[in-house]
Design brief:
By secondary structure, the chain is mainly α. The protein has 2 domains: 1-54; 59-285, MetI-like (MetI-like fold). Helix content is 75%, strand content 0%. It is built from 15 helices and no strands. The two termini are 27 Å apart. The relative contact order is 0.12.
Length: 295
């Protein structure tokens, strides 16, 4: 039996190593393609080993380094504020819905779940946020629409509270004259770090990768663009130069590595996430699998 267990562990490790390589290889190909000369890619195709190294794509992007750095700062600001607000409302809503004696608990839960199945659509949402809420051309246009609160996150948080925090513990705290805020902040939240970290990562990634809000709600305030909007604009400009360059700009336009720029844009946008993710990984894994084993 010991030999069979050892063989299974070896087999599992081999499978996980192969899966890890499968996950890492696309990123390696992305980075290599971003520093490979455009003509080489066109002639030989993509390769994990660059035949001719050329940093023209990064030179083109960093010609607008001030703009990119400002966009990075705006992205961090939006992600921080948006994720903080998202998590506060998610924790409050999840805690309230976990209370068995909450009046209308089932109706509220159904109402939240209903929004996951049906939506009014983009046009009604745009009218509400731009005309009624007046978030157009403000930083709130990047924070509030679409990402401020997630029904899925609320359900996950509520389920975590009801499944992994003993109800008797909260009752005992109430008998000791602990307020609802005290129960939430001193009992429930300290026991919910894996789920909080997981939902924080989900929300932060959503804000970091979002470019729809900037496209729809920032019409005149281009200075509020996040990194995704700036990089998307730069990519569109490169393609425009390639397709519609005049005779005077023809040589310059053709010298811009459009394919390399696209790859470099992807690399620049993903690097901060790769730096931050390892700090959340242990909580992320625990938050995903928690509740799978009942005590």
């Amino acid at each position: 039996m010991a030999g069979k267990g050892r063989g299974f562990r070896i087999f599992s490790n081999i499978v996980m190593i192969l899966l890890s390589f499968a996950a890492v290889m696309p990123f390696i190909l992305l980075v290599v393609s971003s520093i490979t000369r455009e003509e080489v890619i066109a002639r030989y195709g993509y390769s994990f080993v660059p035949r001719a190294i050329d940093f023209a794509a990064y030179r083109y992007l960093f010609m607008s380094s001030n703009r990119i750095l400002k966009a990075y700062g705006m992205t961090f600001l939006v992600a921080f504020i948006g994720t903080s607000c998202n998590m506060l409302m998610t924790m409050f809503a999840g805690y309230l819905l976990s209370k068995r004696d909450l009046p209308g608990r089932n109706f509220i839960s159904f109402f939240i779940f209903f929004t996951m199945l049906f939506s009014g659509g983009m046009i009604p949402s745009y009218i509400i946020w731009s005309r009624l809420m007046k978030v157009g051309d403000t930083i709130f246009g990047l924070i509030c629409p679409n990402l401020m609160l997630s029904a899925f996150n609320i359900i996950l948080m509520r389920t975590y509270f009801t499944s992994n925090i003993p109800y008797e513990l909260c009752e005992a705290a109430e008998m000791d004259s602990c307020s609802e805020a005290g129960i939430l902040f001193h009992i429930c939240l300290p026991l919910s770090k894996p789920m909080i970290a997981t939902l924080t990562l989900f929300s932060g990634l959503a804000y970091w990768n979002d470019w729809i809000n900037g496209l729809y709600y920032l019409v005149r305030r281009k200075d509020l663009f996040t990194i995704q909007n700036v990089l998307n604009t730069m990519q569109s400009n490169v393609q425009f130069l390639k397709d519609y360059a005049t005779a005077s700009l023809g040589e310059f336009a053709q010298s811009i590595p459009s394919l390399g720029v696209r790859m470099a844009i992807a690399v620049i946008s993903i690097i901060p996430i790769m730096v931050i993710y390892p700090f959340f990984q242990q909580y992320f894994v625990r938050g995903i699998v928690v509740g799978g084993v009942k005590g």
